[in-house]
Design a protein that fits this description.
By secondary structure, this protein is α/β, with parallel strands linked by helices. The protein has 8 helices and 27 strands. 20% of the residues lie in helices and 30% in strands. The strands form 7 sheets. Strands 1-19-21-22-18-14-17 form a 7-stranded mixed β-sheet, with helices on both faces. It has a 6-stranded mixed β-sheet with strand order 8-5-7-6-10-9, with no helix packed on it. A 5-stranded mixed β-barrel has the order 23-25-24-26-27. Bound molecules: adenosine monophosphate and magnesium ion (MG).
Length: 409
């Protein structure tokens, strides 16, 4: 299919654009087994089930004394009959005695409560309990955390330290994960130079490459960068073809508008197929999607803030789907608007905004500049404030907010 002008003539809503992307994203199927040591950031390809109870046995939540509440003498003065350090197992508790016990030590058979050492006093060799403990006090029962047979982390989860800790707690040393995917970043434009190079007249630094590389690497993606692609039809076509050979997905920035120096569109059309959408979002109206050969292709706009927003809101859920993640959409929270805008905008807006707490409520205030060329406002912001299309905003209005720290995973 070639560029569909009917799509380009009318604005497409964000939701429709995102749905079209997600519907066509193909999750990787190849899996590999990796050690838990190397599993951070990988996506689980099979549920992790526990074969054991965690903790495996009832243990003490405190440093103190294990007793049997039903066999305590009325005086609550008891001899210490054994000492159980962490990693040791006690023996059957003699009635009317206490076992010295430490946090994490297994409760000896016959005991039904632990009394904290702060609630006892030494009287010679014996121990005086200062209160009468109740059965179950300060005992963490076997299986309190995890019962045998439970799925502790589900297929499709991107593993972080929380998951690795839980998997380790059930004694699993290796996990099955999806193959890592490779994304090629094509930044186009004769005006671009890399930081460290001289930015002569007419030149600007290539920020989009670093924005995209940073975001992709944080997602656990292997990044391929063939260098800056000059504004030339053949160079663009050759670079796209090579990138598509090497990567699972090609992402470009710039060159998808309708200017004479925008060669990406024609190059993708000649190597595969391309759809160019005018999304009803701000920033980031032009978005291209298609394939180069059989490799999927996403063409982001050139403007740096538009790159950030379209990557986070559209490309990232698509890539997470490719990675095999089950949870691909960013979480949205309702906050109060800290600003007013009487002008109504036809496109849905994703404003870089900072959060603060005012009168106990979260309030989002948009950064001063929302120009699609202004990237620096993103580092002074906590996330994206969503202003629905055609809506005026008053101070205090409830609006959706998408925190960057939820988006950057
Ligand atoms: P284009 O879509 O190629 O016309 O680019 C739109 C705007 O984004 C122009 O001002 C470009 O100079 C700028 N731009 C494109 N690519 C980059 C990049 N990699 N880094 C910074 N700015 C860029
Ligand atoms: Mg350009």
């Amino acid at each position: 299919m070639t560029a569909c002008s009917c799509d380009y003539d009318r604005l497409m809503s964000f939701d429709v654009g995102l749905q079209r992307l997600l519907d066509s994203a193909k999750p990787v199927t190849e899996t590999e087994t990796v050690s838990l040591e190397d599993a951070a950031g990988r996506v689980l390809a099979a549920d992790v089930l526990s074969t054991i109870a965690v903790p495996p046995a009832a243990n003490s939540a405190m440093d103190g004394y294990a007793v049997n509440t039903r066999s305590l003498p009325e005086s609550l003065l008891v001899p210490i009959s054994q000492r159980i350090a962490a990693g040791q197992q006690g023996t059957l508790l003699e009635p009317g005695t206490a076992a010295r016990i430490f946090t994490g030590s297994e409760i000896p058979p016959g005991a039904d409560a632990v009394i904290m050492q702060e609630q006892t006093r030494h009287v010679g060799e014996d121990i005086q309990l200062l209160i009468h403990p109740k059965a179950g006090d300060h005992i963490r029962p076997a299986g309190q955390d995890i019962q045998p047979g439970r799925c502790v982390v589900a297929k499709g989860t991107k593993l972080d330290g929380r998951h690795l800790g839980v998997i380790a707690s059930v004694g699993v040393a290796e996990v099955t994960v999806y193959r890592r995917i490779k994304v090629a970043i094509l930044t186009t434009g004769d005006e671009l130079v890399l930081p460290g190079e001289e930015a002569g007249p007419g030149k600007i630094y290539n920020s989009n490459y670093f924005t995209l590389k940073g975001l992709l690497e944080r997602m656990g993606i292997e990044v391929v960068f063939p260098g800056i692609i000059e504004d030339d039809p053949q160079v663009t076509q050759d670079a796209l073809a090579a990138a598509a050979e090497d990567a699972d997905l090609v992402i470009s920035s710039g060159g998808v508008s309708v200017g004479e120096e925008d060669h990406v569109k024609a190059a993708v059309e000649s190597l595969g197929e391309l759809m160019l959408w005018r999304l009803a979002i701000k920033p980031g109206k032009p978005l291209a999607y298609g394939r180069v050969g059989q490799t999927p292709f996403i063409g982001l706009p050139g403007n740096p803030a538009a790159v950030l927003v379209t990557f986070l809101m559209l490309a990232s859920p698509y890539i997470k789907t490719m990675q095999g993640c089950s949870d691909v959409l960013p979480k949205r929270y309702t906050v109060k608007s800290g600003y007013e805008r009487t002008k109504v905008v036809a496109r849905e807006e994703f404003l870089r905004a900072a959060l603060s707490v005012q009168d106990g409520e979260l309030v989002a205030a948009p950064a001063h500049s929302q120009s699609s060329g202004v990237l620096s406002s993103s580092v002074m912001s906590d996330g994206l404030l969503v202003i629905p299309a055609e809506q005026a905003v008053a101070v205090g209005d409830p609006l959706e907010f998408i925190p960057f720290n939820g988006l950057l995973g």
